[in-house]
Amino acid sequence: QVQLVESGGGSVQSGGSLRLSCAVSGFNVAWRCMAWFRQGPEVESEGVASINAYNTLNYAASVKGRFTISRDTAKNILYLDMDRLKPEDTATYYCAARDETSCMNRNSTLYKHWGQGTQVTVSS
Question: N or C: which end of the chain has fewer CB atoms below 10 A?
Fold first, then answer.
C-alpha cells in the first residue's frame, strides 16, 4: 500500500530555514517522479519543486535558489530544504508522486499519490 507521510513543518521567522521530509512506503522513491506542492491562504495550489527518476530537478520561479529538493533512496525519503524563507512561503506543503519516472510538469492532476500535508508558517 502506498503511503506518503510529511513532517518537518513549523513556524519560523522570515529569513529562516526548514527541512521538510516525506517518508514513502509502497514504492522506491528512486524510480518515480516526486514533487512538493503547496497551498496557502493567498495562493492556489503551486508545484514548488520536482525530481524525476533521472535526477532532473525543476523549481517554481518563486522558490528557485532558495529551495532544494532531494531524496535519500536508502531511507526512501523525499526532502525539501527551504532557506531564506519569506512570509509568502506560508502554506501547507504536500509531497506527491506519479506512477511514472518522468515528471512532465508540475500539474497536480498528473500526481496520483499524496501525503496529508505539513504546515509551514513564516512570520515577518
Answer: N
